[in-house]
């Protein structure tokens, strides 16, 4: 297991909660703990991001904040 990178101002890494969802395709049942991260109306959300489910938005914003806390100091290089 890789140790998370930590800088002086970095936030703790967000952890997506597991919400088991099973589906069967071709007779094979698969459990996807992170299926909830795909909005049911994902094509509409691409056109209008304001329609994104609040749980998904909150998690993605936490990931973005974490990334910014690690890489924000490199903004001039990006």
Written account of the structure:
The structure is a single chain. With 78 residues, this protein is α+β, with helices and mostly antiparallel strands. The chain is 31% helix and 13% strand. The protein contains two helices and two strands. The chain has helices at 42-47, 54-71, and strands at 21-25, 28-32. It has a two-stranded antiparallel sheet. A hairpin with a 2-residue loop joins strand 1 and strand 2. The longest helix is centred in the C-terminal third of the chain and has 18 residues, at 54-71. It is extended. It starts with 20 loop residues before the first strand and ends in a 7-residue tail after the last helix. The model has no long low-confidence stretch (mean pLDDT 91).
Give the helix/strand layout.
Blueprint: E1 21-25, E2 28-32, H1 42-47, H2 54-71
Notable characteristics:
13% strand, 78 residues, 2 strands, two-stranded antiparallel ribbon, alpha+beta
């Amino acid at each position: 297991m890789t140790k998370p990178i930590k800088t002086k101002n970095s936030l703790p890494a967000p952890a997506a909660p597991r919400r088991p969802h099973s589906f069967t395709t071709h007779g094979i049942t698969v459990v996807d703990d992170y299926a909830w991260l795909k909005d049911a109306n994902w094509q509409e959300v691409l056109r209008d991001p304001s329609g994104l489910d609040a749980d998904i938005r909150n998690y993605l914003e936490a990931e973005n904040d974490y990334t910014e806390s690690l890489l924000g100091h490199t903004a001039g290089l990006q």
